[in-house]
Amino acid sequence: MPKTTSILMGGVGGQGIVLASKILAHVIQAHDFDLKISEIHGMAQRGGSVLTYIRFGEVVHSPLIEPGQADYVMASEKLEAWRWLPYLHSGGTMVCSTQEIKPVPVIMGLQKYPHNIEKAMQTMVAKGTLGKLYAINALAVARECGQPKAANVALIGVLAHCLQFPLASFEEALEAIVPARFLAANKKAFLAGYQYFTDI
């Protein structure tokens, strides 16, 4: 890992971005890194954006991530992925769900939802301006695991595959944070995300 790793997590209110950030923070702290984390909720309860900055390393002075600084962006919705894409540095990694959640201006007919986002990001990968793109239908994966709300955990599984932490550390974090009645489904969703791009 680089001396300091910067991860931006973005999504829509109700998608579990805060829970996902807690899982990752638990893993980072278990390995004795200096950790700085900042959450921005905005109008989350009305379907607005939820954003979390996570930075860790030997010594980290600020949790804030400026455009062009993130090593990873994890987005739980396609438009959110596009919104936060400029925060990735050249060669950074995007982990995103292909789910589409229409924002209020689109629902009201004031704007159109852009339907070429994934293709545009794939083109960026081909040109080398985006390092890697892992786009997964996280909602479908979570539904297959018996818990649609675990889509965020499936994305954490994909991100975990990119990071160099032991798999057991993520499993321990899930056990510490996820309520017992949802644990089995969340573990299944996490492993499905972790294995997703090694199985295809």
What do these coordinates show?
The chain is an alpha/beta fold and 200 residues long. The chain has a single domain (4-196), classed as 3-Layer(aba) Sandwich (Pyruvate-ferredoxin Oxidoreductase, domain 3). It is built from eight helices and six strands, in the order βαβββαβααβαααα. It has helices spanning 17-30, 78-84, 104-107, 117-127, 138-144, 151-162, 167-177, 180-196, and strands at 4-12, 34-40, 49-57, 70-75, 88-97, 132-136. It has a six-stranded mixed sheet, sandwiched between helices. It is globular. The relative contact order is 0.16.
Provide keyphrases for this structure.
alpha/beta, globular, single chain, 8 helices, 200 residues, Pyruvate-ferredoxin Oxidoreductase, domain 3
Number of E-type strands: 6
CATH topology: Pyruvate-ferredoxin Oxidoreductase, domain 3
What fraction of residues sit in β-strands?
15-25%
Estimated radius of gyration: 16 Å
End-to-end distance = 26 Å
* Element order: H for helix, E for strand: EHEEEHEHHEHHHH
- Neighbour order of strands in the largest sheet: 2-3-1-4-5-6
Any idea what the CATH architecture is? 3-Layer(aba) Sandwich
Show unreliable segments: none
Brief account:
The chain has 200 residues and is α/β, with parallel strands linked by helices. It is built from 8 helices and 6 strands, in the order E-H-E-E-E-H-E-H-H-E-H-H-H-H.
SSE blueprint and pairings:
Elements lengths: L3 E9 L4 H14 L3 E7 L8 E9 L12 E6 L2 H7 L3 E10 L6 H4 L9 H11 L4 E5 L1 H7 L6 H12 L4 H11 L2 H17 L4
Parallel strand pairs: 1-4, 4-5, 5-6
Antiparallel strand pairs: 1-3, 2-3
Helix pairs in contact: 1-7, 5-6, 5-8, 6-8
